[in-house]
Amino acid sequence: MVILPGFKSLCDSGAEALRSYAQDGGSLVISGPAGTHSDVGPERPAPIFADLLGGTPPGEELAVTPIGEGTVVSCPRRFADADLPDGFSTTDYKVSRPQTYGGKSRGPLIPVSVAANRDLFLHALDLAAGRDLSLMDVPDAPGLRVAGRYRIDSEQPSLTVHIINEQMAMRHDDTGGYFMLAEDGTPGSCAELTLSIPLPDGYRAAQVTWAQMPQSDPQELAFKPLADGIVCTVPEVELYSIVRVKLQPGAGAGETIAGTVSATQTPHPSQGIYVPDAEAPSLHPIALTDAAVGGDPIRLNYTHPSLIYATAGDTVSVRVAAFGSEGKWARWWIAAPDGTLLRTGAVACGSSEDLDFVAQTEGVYLVQAQADADDIAISSTTHGICLPASPSQRVNFRGQPPTLYFHVPPDRDTIALRLQSRDREGGYEIADSQGRTMALRDGLGQTTVMDPGGAMVWSEKSSGAVYQRVEIPVPEGEAGAIWSLKFTAGKPDSATVSNFYFDDDLPALVSTSPAALLVP
To answer: Are 109 and 96 in contact (CB under 8 A)?
Structure first.
């Protein structure tokens, strides 16, 4: 069985191999868009699997399409969006480690959707495989994806754990319309990985084997029996490994899994497969004498996370404004530093809503809005707001935003950004802490980098609608300082969208107030 969960990017040869696999008797499970883009980025005129994603019968969540000797089970939406309130999505943003880098992943409504998500996914597997499978909950792990399935209704009951290593840095080029794969990366090291794996009630482990995929002979692993599971160590995970536990009836013995899980591992509502985890990189405010409040709101295009640092007991006042056609609206939500959903609601386009909440713990809180509103603006009268500005979370704004500030890490000698302007009369200016202009870009795509004395050190022109990569040398004494980024619109009240992001491994955060900046 092959599962494609919202698998948009797919090469021609890969699609043909999957089609042949199904025609020869295999099973495909597809959720959400599949094959809508090529493997290097551009969108296809039509999804490559359009003929296999037949119409879903009225009232049904899943469609089954025969192909050759095999079966395709398709879901009109991604499994992670199952049974959510209208306007919400768990596939756009991850709250547990989110606030550091702003990457797009799962969203904050996991507690709302997890039960329906599991049921829908298992139903799809049952239709594809024709047998009952049980899905195990799995906590997050740094750079890894782990999934567990067990089957006990057979002559040889077993449990299978899939481990995917996502620690691979790949370089992408941004065309302005999509990201294009420019250079493959190499997987990061993931060796001596300890797993604490629960077993179904009434079963114990008879044998544990491990295989490095795609080409590796299974290797038997030693394991430690527990009262409710086992602990074993996987020698290495390059890209993808499988651990298979053969089960036999009988009770386990020894300590419980809870005793093997360290305090730094991600908590989970139900017992899952645990792997070594470290606390998410923490953020804290920059030590400035000014109060970390103020700053004009920025009108953001699309959904964008807003990060607020608060201490326990703080009352945080937030205003969410929505822009768009009459009858449209924006859903909003507030999440705590641990990912717990605190409040949700909706605001009609053309209006705003004032929200207050009391911070229960110290840390970074997320305020976010999305739905069919064209733009949103999130501001606070009590606390400063930071915006992630990374490759996975660009700052898309309309018109002329207030001056934005960012922190240059003390160990950096260059700062790389990608700038895009759709305002042919507008332009960017990046200045250091002393107000010296370090880079300029106009609406026609001419970008210039200067030295502290104002002399040009580099210049290049590109289409104004295409991102221009700008690498700015950090002058002596400016590492660790606060710089500014200013966009001047040709017409300040214009509805034109422009955007930017930092193009390196910075924990890239910007704010309209220097004192509100967050740093690791």
So the answer is: no
The pLDDT tens digits for 393-427 are 789 899 899 999 999 999 889 999 999 888 888 89
Nearest to 427 by CA among 356, 510, 485, 385: 485
User: Can you tell me the distance from the alpha carbon of 282 to that of 93, in angstroms, rounded to the nearest whole number?
Assistant: 18
Helix (H, G, I), strand (E, B) or coil at 52: helix
Per-residue pLDDT tens over the stretch 465-511? 678 889 999 999 999 999 999 999 987 777 788 889 998 666 688 99
> What is d(CA 131, CA 150) in angstroms, rounded to the nearest whole number?
11
- What DSSP element (H or E) covers 122? helix 110-129
Only one residue has tokens 């620690």, namely 167
Give the C-alpha separation, 117 to 110, whole Å.
Answer: 9
- Token readout for 80 is 């992670």
Q: Which of 248, 276, 252, 249 is nearest to 263 (CA)?
A: 276
Closest CA to 419 of 474, 482, 495, 470: 470
- Residue 50 has which token pair? 């359009």
**Which letter does DSSP use for residue 93 in this model?**
-
